Prior knowledge:
The protein has about 120 residues and is mostly helical. It folds into 2 domains: about 1-95, Helix Hairpins, CATH 1.10.287.70; about 95-125. It is about 75% helix and about 0% strand.
Amino acid sequence: MTSLSLIVGVAGASGMYAFEHGVAGSTITSFSSALWWTAMTLTTMGSDYFPKTAQGRLLCFLLALYGFAVFGYVTATIASFFVARDADTSEGDIAGARQLERLEREIAALNEKIDRMMSQSRSGP
């Protein structure tokens, strides 16, 4: 994931520099400013720089989508780590595997009691 993000970042900065370099009124005038802009877009922080050309804006949109997807993936990975950790403890808010096994045993015991009571009531006193 990190390698892909680095490749996307450098390729995005190269594309943005190619699209915006030499355009009147563009704030992206060097590769370093294009790299800064790309890094800020991918981290969903934004920047004072912004594209002026249609190609630059399309690239901006695609890079923002990639940044949101990666940010969502990282956030979900971190959240699932904590949820799994809490699920394995008896104090966790989420029923873990041990708690589910205990509940299954209790339900099975209750079903056996109900079956015994039903068979007793059918056979009479």
